[in-house]
Amino acid sequence: MHLHYYYYGISYKIQQIIQFLPNACNFVVEATIVVATNNVTYQDRIAAFGPRLADEGLLGYLVSVEMIEANNQKGCSKLKRKAPTNQWIALVERGQCTFIEKVRSMQASGAIAVVVGDNKKNGLITMYATGDTSDVIIPSVFIAQTDLKSLIAEKPVEAQLVKDNLSQWSLLNVIIIVILSLTVMMIFIYVLWRIRQRQRRKQNITPRRIATKIFFESKRQEEEPQECAICLEDYADEDELRILPCKHEFHIVCVDSWLTTKEKFCPICKRDISNLDEPAILLSSQGAL
Fold it and tell me: Rounded to whole angstroms, how far apart are CA atoms 251 and 235?
């Protein structure tokens, strides 16, 4: 039962990795903002949600949202005022709300695309969103904080969002990571299964399944011991002895207590009886009869 739930959980994790792979590949899709007036370029990264940029790119006027509404520079709500042009690309700052909320708000405000600038001095990141994002019909990209400040200083300017080529090396890295993750996961499952199998065998092996005999001094062979190695008392006639698979003999009371409260191995030779399967124990039992 426990293994069933565990394998179900692993299966769910594998499905999550498979679902993550397409989005993981998105983060290697870089793009560029080209300012038409001075031909200056700014590196950006396309979001994991929304449509992809067309091969020919997207041309429009890049407008900072705070120029339209000073109290809405983050772009977290629909604009109450109209933008100065219809073909405009919203420039907003990161923070206060999620990336998907910014894009939806700017889409509702009439923007044809959204450029989100970082509010910290970090590198480029991929914007992700949870839940259904099929309602998002405009592309969005992420830029660094320094580029955000430079573009804000440009004021409304004609710009083009251009998609760069996919980085094959980065995509290969993603595939390698996913394959290694699955391999490590399968090894972990196998090791856990082996541990649980061993624990189950230890639980199933009880002293009563191990061979016994009645001791008689007259039948004792010369090489056979005269005393129990656990309690150090001599065997007496009609004492019940238990014979472990390693052929060492002990008082039943002594060795049963040892096997059930201490360890699952022979007190003399340390042979682990939990590693022996049932046929081996039964064979040993038949030999003692």
Answer: 8
Whole-number Å distance between alpha carbons of 111 and 100: 14
Asked if 268 contacts 248 with a C-beta cutoff of 8 angstroms, the reply is yes
Per DSSP, which regions of the chain are E strands? 30-35, 41-46, 58-64, 88-93, 113-117, 140-143, 157-163, 212-214, 240-243, 249-251
CATH class held by domain 29-165: alpha beta
Number of residues assigned to the chain = 289
Q: What pLDDT digit, counting tens, does each position of 115-165 carry?
A: 999 998 888 888 999 899 999 999 999 999 999 998 888 777 888 898 765
Note whether 31 and 53 are within 8 A (CB): yes
Q: Give, as one character, the DSSP assignment of residue 85.
A: S
> Could you give the angle at which helices 168-204 and 2-26 cross, rounded to 10 degrees?
170
CA distances from 140 to 84, 190, 279 (A): 20, 43, 67
Asked whether the whole model's pTM tops 0.90, one would answer no
Q: Which two tokens stand for residue 52?
A: 């992809």
Residues pairing with 286 in the sheet: none
Q: Could you give the 3-state DSSP secondary structure of residue 114?
A: strand
Q: How many helices (H) and strands (E) does the chain have?
A: 7, 10
- Rounded to a whole number of angstroms, the CA Rg of the chain reads 37
Q: Of 131, 82, 85, whose CA–CA distance to 108 is shortest?
A: 82
Tokens 């682990």 sit on residue: 272
CB 285 within 8 A of CB 210: yes
Q: The domain 206-288: what is its CATH number? A: 3.30.40.10
The strand pairing partners of 159, in sequence order, are 35, 60
- The tokens for 104 are 């939806």
Domain ranges of the chain: 29-165, 206-288
Query: Whole-angstrom Cα distance, residue 235 to residue 227?
Result: 5
Instruction: Give the chain's largest Cα–Cα span.
Output: 114
115 three-state secondary structure: strand
